[in-house]
Specification:
Elements lengths: L3 H31 L14 E5 L2 E10 L6 E9 L5 E6 L8 E5 L4 E3 L7 E3 L4 E5 L5 E5 L5 E8 L5 E8 L4 H4 L9
Parallel strand pairs: 2-11
Antiparallel strand pairs: 1-2, 2-3, 3-6, 3-7, 4-5, 4-10, 8-9, 10-11
Length: about 180
């Protein structure tokens, strides 16, 4: 009788181990099945922002500027998911308020990063910051800040979006910093 007790303990220990492994596998499977597939959720994967105006999706929308924020190159891509060509009006209020018009053909993408589509704005304007003591300070919009941009299409509601301003510190933006002869 003394020889069967260790066998029973080993059998019970193996059974407990197998049960724990099955429970763990079941938990992992159930948690994995409940997790959303994040690759199907649109998000701004780069430094720019994304928005939609009418049938036009705007992605990686940002401004590359010099240190002083006196001029900026607008980057991004505008994709027309509609069945007709669409003219997009882009305005940065500080840039004299004159809208820049871009026509995007149906089913096409207009890439502002291409040299032939370069859009340079002359002034990024001023921004007002609230200070810790409750007072406000007005400064020139510079890299690290945001500039307000308006987007509109014919027959659609206009959209205002805060667009990040970056400089040429990162290699991917270095060639987009406007020179003093642009704008």
């Amino acid at each position: 009788m003394t020889t069967s007790a260790p066998r029973t303990r080993r059998f019970l220990t193996r059974r407990k181990g197998l049960a724990a492994a099955l429970v763990s596998a079941g938990l992992v499977a159930s948690v994995t099945g409940c997790s959303p597939i994040t690759t199907t959720i649109p998000y701004a994967a780069s430094d720019g922002v994304r928005t939609t105006v009418g049938d036009v999706s705007v992605v990686n929308f940002l401004v590359v500027s010099d240190e002083g924020g006196t001029a900026g190159r607008v980057l991004g891509a505008l994709t027309n998911t509609g069945e007709q060509a669409t003219t997009v009006s882009l305005s940065i209020p500080s840039d004299g308020g004159q809208p820049h018009m871009v026509t995007v053909e149906a089913g096409e993408t207009f890439n502002l990063n291409l040299e032939e589509n370069a859009l340079v704005v002359g002034d990024l304007g001023q921004t007002t910051n609230k200070l810790a003591d409750g007072s406000e300070e007005t400064t020139q919009v510079k890299p690290g800040g945001v500039v307000e941009a308006g987007l509109a299409v014919t027959g659609g509601d206009p959209v205002t979006v805060e667009v990040p301003v970056v400089d040429g510190t990162l290699a991917e933006y270095k060639d987009y910093v406007p020179t003093s002869t642009e704008g």
